[in-house]
């Protein structure tokens, strides 16, 4: 396990690192979604024959998984991106291929916009592109964001546990309580410009993987017109890398061959 100090107060991001084959020059960075951890979500894919062989960092965002959970951190998408940037520079990673799921995809877009020297290619896995209105009794970030922080810490967390079910809760229970709520609030609010607008302006190769059964993304034609390769992956839900690992590996390998 590796780590790097990423805040002035000494909070550390940690990651599991898979070494590349001799002669490999590419580095890949995997970022998880809200309430998740990169190891459980990406290890099997990173070891897939189509993707193995490059140095790969399975990185946990600050507040989640094996990383520190500071309670004095704001957990905005910009702050997450800057913390990841500090970790990558500490790991001597520049021009990385970033593979990022859900909220991690939103962080990755902001990372590429704010720290362009760190990101060479993006593979977004059903990532958040737009703000969403908070709504009670919903399972994702908007459901968590419907609570005030005081309400979430007092009674909202066990209510969320019942809504999300045991699979997601297996990693979500590792998250810092404040980190989970603040990250959800800021993910629902989005960025200015929005993550979608930032993505459209990026000049690097960009691939967006979405579940086939979900149908076209809002504004998918505009994404394609701006050079984003949008791929509909069959037989999967939101967790594409877990639901259809073979197709995920094939499409990710294709994206990283550009």
TrEMBL record:
A Gene Ontology term for the protein's cellular component: membrane
UniProt domain AB hydrolase-1: residue ranges: 29-133
Taxon lineage: Bacteria, Bacillati, Actinomycetota, Actinomycetes, Kitasatosporales
Source organism per UniProt: Streptomyces atratus
Pfam families cross-referenced by the UniProt entry: Abhydrolase_1
Name assigned to this protein: Pimeloyl-ACP methyl ester carboxylesterase
Gene Ontology MF, one: catalytic activity
Protein origin, superkingdom: Bacteria
